């Protein structure tokens, strides 16, 4: 389960995603440089011709080739969601996973519509299928939100079939189909006027997604008129709001980097109607948010391409500023500790401790919030110089590890 959103503004786009995965699965954030084409490329289950790759920052489950979300040097960002349809994914042969399509779209496209073309072309040619949840042995279809600085698309799939529509102003997706008859592009065989909701599996309730989708759409609506992305003097003001939204425990945004306000505990239980399944996900003994990203996709490209990435539950983590790839700074700069499974394991342990009671979460935030605020303040003063950002990445690793060690000494989380 996941939640993805984008806001299109005068100065560019804001993109954000929480990636929700099985508890025992760990996710890492990696930077990948450009790759020349030629030869063969191995995805999770298929081997494809390698057409080359743009520089990317990717967040991926450690056992998968594909990515849950990411951003490339051209300012394209993509995230995917699990969706349930009348087509049974268990009967499909292993082919491309939704996560493969996220990564291939980022590697091969210089804009949102080009990414849509890449992803749907691969889907039609090679198909979709295979286990995407190794812990529970689950296969599933995906929907996608694809954004660049000036445009975005919602893409929904069922097997090899797909439909898509452009985003106006902003939008959000969650773990349910959202397209109706408003699609403008579709795969061959989709009859004009088809209500894409007719693809929805009637046996699968949508309550677990409806509340999160409504919250994200409300956030998008609140941000739509914001000019924050157009203001070079406040490069992360919109991103701070997005982080607070990704920390939502069902009562609204909280915990903006550098902001004040009370700590909001996670819901104690999940009801049958989906109540208690929140943006910052804590489904005890089953699933949780394992990684998050916020990215500013700037239209003018005058400033550094910025992103903020976190491992584990947003409420019990640090959104670390990174220099996203760009034509002038490729491949960007990302702290190396975010690519380490051991780091992901430590943040996952914090998430499990923080969801037990409010005092535990307050103790975690008391240590992590000052570190996050300091990192955001320092990053806001950096220009696009990759040398300065690499030095910052090294310093950020030191501060984050220090915070994790402090909590471990208090008996919260895991030691190094």
Structure in words:
This protein has one domain: Penicillin V Acylase, Chain A (4-Layer Sandwich). Helix content is 27%, strand content 25%. It contains seven helices and 19 strands. It has helices at 98-108, 112-126, 207-223, 237-246, 341-354, 358-380, 386-409; strands at 2-9, 12-22, 27-32, 40-42, 47-49, 56-61, 69-72, 77-83, 131-133, 138-139, 141-147, 152-158, 161-166, 170-173, 185-186, 282-283, 287-298, 306-311, 320-323. It has an eight-stranded antiparallel sheet with strand order 3-6-7-8-11-12-13-15. Strands 1, 2, 14, 16, 17, 18 and 19 form a seven-stranded antiparallel sheet that branches. A hairpin with a 4-residue loop joins strand 7 (69-72) and strand 8 (77-83). Helix 1 packs across helix 2.
Key attributes of the depicted protein:
single chain, 416 residues, alpha+beta, Penicillin V Acylase, Chain A, eight-stranded antiparallel beta sheet, 7 helices, 19 strands, 25% strand
Topology, pairings included?
Layout: E1 2-9, E2 12-22, E3 27-32, E4 40-42, E5 47-49, E6 56-61, E7 69-72, E8 77-83, H1 98-108, H2 112-126, E9 131-133, E10 138-139, E11 141-147, E12 152-158, E13 161-166, E14 170-173, E15 185-186, H3 207-223, H4 237-246, E16 282-283, E17 287-298, E18 306-311, E19 320-323, H5 341-354, H6 358-380, H7 386-409
Helix pairs in contact: 1-2, 5-6, 6-7
